[in-house]
Write a structure and sequence with these properties.
The chain has 770 residues and is an alpha/beta fold. Among the domains are: 187 residues, no CATH class; 113 residues, no CATH class; 148 residues, 3-Layer(aba) Sandwich (Rossmann fold), CATH 3.40.50.300. It contains 26 helices and 26 strands. Strands 1, 2, 3, 4, 5, 6 and 7 form a 7-stranded mixed β-sheet that branches. Strands 22-23-21-24-25-20-26 form a 7-stranded parallel β-sheet. Strands 10-9-15-16-8-17 form a 6-stranded parallel β-sheet. A hairpin with a 2-residue loop joins strand 6 and strand 7. Helix 14 crosses helix 20. It is globular. The structure holds adenosine-5'-triphosphate (ATP). GO terms for molecular function: 3'-5' DNA helicase activity; ATP binding; DNA binding; hydrolase activity. Keywords: ATP-binding, Helicase, Hydrolase, Nucleotide-binding. InterPro entries: DNA_helicase_UvrD/REP, HelD_bacillota, P-loop_NTPase, UvrD-like_ATP-bd, UvrD-like_helicase_C.
Length: 770
């Protein structure tokens, strides 16, 4: 038996021992879980028997309440305990399959004996609860596994830095308790485990990377000091992966105060949301909340207002050039994305503090109960030193008082009696009981009618009261629209008249263009207050380069105390705004900021990265990971029919090669639709659109903005002809599309290819012509 085989046998023995230990622990926990479950069931069944209920005297009522509370607390404690044990059992189950992925032998400088540290997705103690059989990957000591190769190493603890030497670094692939692979790392880390992981087929859901986190990614994951962490990472550098492991890390470090409920991830699109949804549960952690920025804004606006999605905006930008209003819209997008526009809105709001705000009549049964003019004059009679939202609160209180007065008058009207007559028998019974309980001196019948009249009016006016409480009496949309109408500005940008005209027309249809959505919600917040969710402690923004300066300013306003992690890549900035301001380093976020650059690309083969970096801005900094593959192929054809025929053959070839996910990535939806019509009879192909929230293996066809953040075994770009991708925005689109490929990239062009391809030396790709 050679040394390697001996080592492997020793390690397999250890794995067997650990698995046995896991089984023992699981057995004990399962038993405890059963007992607890029985307890919970019993407690629920006997809940009322164990509570002393006595409502005779006020003191008895208080005692009864206390008794119920105590019983409920006992029950929820037992339920929590049961939940916790189940979580532990789930982790043990995962550990049983693959107890660990790494081993470090470490000698501290102050010690003489080395310690063998095995690292896995959760900790495990021996049966005496004395020694760690497995260390959680997030434990302080585990960081040396990610940060160092054999030799000198150190890690931070709460008590200071601990230094020493790594004498062995070993990686494992363990499945079903059997070691399938075992690699020792030399002084230069030839990461065989990573090679293996990246060589696999792409998955339709993202995987965790804890076994192979790289040093620079570990910095992102373990950063706790900065309020704003900004990660500029090239395509495929593991930004999203690092962000998700970072969430798991932060939850582990702040177990008591941080959970999935107070972390929000802003995803680029719903497809991406489901793509990343498995990572945290796979690590035994609760998922964070996920939303797109569009969904977030929609949750803040009245459902009667339609918001254009960023994808609709994108589609228009890419295809609407022949439209008469195109140029105006483009200039409008740029201006409304800037903080200059925010300044304009701020000026406008301060003017509205003293005049011009629009209100709505409060009407009931087609009658105006309180006119907008009265509301306005009440609002402007209030002290102007009081902030607008606070004044709104006062108006709301005043209006509720007015409605209460109206309620009393209304009760006497004939329509009320008509409605009383239509009431159900139960209502009459209720009225009867009420009058009896009151011991009313009045004639009982009169008392009942009075009660029923009150109830009818109260019920009918309740929705008005609700609306008043949520400040619906303020005409936010009309007030915002006035900004584009009669309002006189001091400084206006070029083409303001046309922008105003276009915006005014859309707002009149209760339609908010994407570029107006954030400004509108911001404006609304300044009038009626923004319902900030203070429980959100950490915000993660993926594809951060696609957010405008205005959007960042807004996020800072609504999440002033929230830590943020921003992940992006300027080369993948595909939305059209923000050319004037470097949005990815928002100027508001200048304090307590740390910026980390990730320059190594892990997703694609070396050949694909070396090709795509030729047309990326500052592409010379992009480092490929050393994984070999075929050169990207550019197929130059003469006609569309030719292209279609060869594209079908190429798709079949790629599937035959063993690829499972194959994406045909178009520039826009229009191109997708046209191509889908052609391909659907010849290939089994699925078209992805706004309604698609998850995808399966096979051939997919989708526009590049839906492919953001996702990857595929092979990518086909159906049309990268000279006229198709032109200019900076298209450069980023094309770069984003190409960098979705893990193993193979094929690009078609009808006649000459686009200039970006030509920026790559001819030895970086192979060209095939008819
Ligand atoms: N340390 C790692 N170990 C294993 N796989 C990794 C590692 N880092 C990145 N990857 C893999 O590389 C691919 C790209 O990662 P990810 O999607 O996180 O990158 P990204 O920077 O967010 O990409 P993009 O901006 O291009 O969408 C994924 O398949 C991911 O699993």
């Amino acid at each position: 038996m050679n040394q390697e085989a001996k080592d492997r046998a020793v390690e397999q023995n250890r794995v067997d021992d650990v698995v046995q230990e896991i089984e023992k622990k699981a057995g004990i926990l399962t038993q405890r879980s059963h007992v607890l479950k029985e307890n919970v069931v019993k407690l629920r069944r006997n809940f009322w028997e164990d509570v002393t209920v006595n409502l005779d005297e006020p003191d008895d009522v208080i005692e009864t309440q206390a008794s119920i509370k105590q019983q409920a607390e006992l029950l929820s404690e037992k339920e929590r305990g049961h939940g916790k044990i189940n979580d532990q059992l789930k982790t043990l189950d995962r550990l049983k399959d693959s107890p660990y992925f790494g081993r470090i032998d470490f000698i501290e400088n102050t010690e003489s004996e080395k310690e063998n540290i095995y690292i896995g997705i959760g900790s495990l103690m021996d049966y005496k609860d004395e020694d760690f059989l497995i260390y959680d990957w997030r434990a302080p000591i585990s960081s040396i596994y990610y940060d160092f190769t054999p030799g000198k190493a150190s890690y931070e603890t709460v008590d200071g830095v601990i230094s020493g030497e790594i004498t062995l670094k070993r990686q494992f692939i363990i499945r079903n308790g059997i070691i399938k692979g075992m690699f020792d790392a030399g002084v230069t880390i030839g990461d065989k485990l990573l090679q293996q992981a990246l060589g696999n087929n792409a998955s339709t859901t993202m995987k965790s990377i804890v076994a192979t986190i790289q040093k620079e990614q570990n910095q992102v994951i373990r950063n706790e000091a900065s309020k704003y962490l900004i990660v500029q990472g090239v395509a495929g550098s593991g930004k999203t992966s690092a962000a998700l492991q970072r969430i798991a890390y932060l939850m582990y470090r702040n177990r008591e105060v941080l959970n999935g409920e107070n972390i929000v991830l802003f995803s680029p699109n719903p497809l991406f949301s489901s793509y990343v949804a498995n990572v945290l549960p796979e690590l035994g952690e609760e998922n964070m909340k996920q939303t797109t920025f569009l969904e977030y804004l929609e949750s803040k606006t009245s459902s009667s207002i339609t918001i254009e999605s960023p994808f609709e905006q994108m589609e228009y930008v890419l295809t609407g050039e022949d439209d008469g209003g195109y140029l105006t819209k483009m200039i409008g997008i740029e201006y409304k994305s800037s903080t200059e526009f925010k300044t304009m809105i701020d000026d406008y709001i301060s003017r509205l503090g003293s005049e011009g705000l629009l209100f709505k009549n409060i009407t009931f049964r087609k009658e105006v109960l309180v006119s907008k003019e009265r509301i306005s004059s009440y609002f402007y009679s209030l002290d102007q030193a009081i902030a607008i939202p606070n004044r709104m609160e006062l108006v709301s209180k005043w209006l509720l008082g007015e409605i209460n007065n109206i309620q009393r008058n209304e009760q006497k009207k004939d329509w009320v009696l008509e409605e009383v007559e239509l009431l159900e028998k139960e209502d009459y019974l209720k009225a009867y009981r009420h009058v009896q309980d009151q011991n009313d001196d009045e004639e009982s019948l009169e008392g009942e009618e009075k009660y029923l009249r009150q109830e009818v009016v109260k019920k009918r006016l309740s929705s008005i009261k609700r609306q008043i409480k949520s400040y619906r009496f303020v005409h936010v949309l009309a007030s915002y629209r006035k900004l584009f109408g009669e309002y006189e500005h001091v400084n206006t940008p070029v083409n303001w008249e046309q922008i105003s005209h276009q915006t005014f027309a859309k707002l009149s249809r209760r339609f908010l263009s994407w570029e107006d959505a954030t400004p509108f919600v911001y404006f609304q917040g300044k009038l009626i207050g923004d319902t900030t969710d203070r429980s959100i402690r950490h915000l993660i923004i993926d594809e951060a380069q696609d957010y405008s300066a205005f959007q960042y300013a807004y996020l800072q306003e609504v999440f002033p105390y929230t830590n943020m992690t921003l992940l992006g890549d300027l080369n993948q900035g595909i939305y059209t705004h923000g050319t004037r301001e470097h949005t990815f380093l928002p100027k508001q976020m200048r304090e307590n900021v740390e910026k980390i650059d990730l320059t190594k690309s892990y997703r694609s083969t070396k050949q694909i990265v070396e090709f795509t970096r030729c047309f990326a801005t500052e592409g010379e900094y992009i480092q490929p990971f050393n994984r070999e593959g075929d050169l990207p192929t550019v197929v130059q054809v003469d006609t569309i029919d030719d292209r279609n025929e060869r594209l079908i053959a190429e798709a079949k070839r790629l599937l035959h090669k063993g690829h499972e996910t194959l994406a045909v990535i178009c520039k826009n939806l229009q191109e997708c639709d046209e191509l889908h019509q052609i391909l659907r009879n010849k290939l089994s192909v699925t078209k992805i659109d706004e309604e698609t929230h998850s995808f399966h293996k096979g051939i997919l066809i989708l526009p590049v903005y839906w492919a953001k953040g996702i990857e595929f075994d092979a990518v086909i770009i159906p049309d990268a002809s000279a006229g198709q991708y032109v200019g900076q925005n298209d450069r980023n689109l094309f770069y984003t599309a190409c960098t979705r490929a893990m193993h193979d990239l094929t690009i078609f062009s009808i006649h000459q290819p686009c200039t970006f391809i030509k920026e790559a030396p001819t030895d970086k790709y192979q060209i095939k012509k008819n």
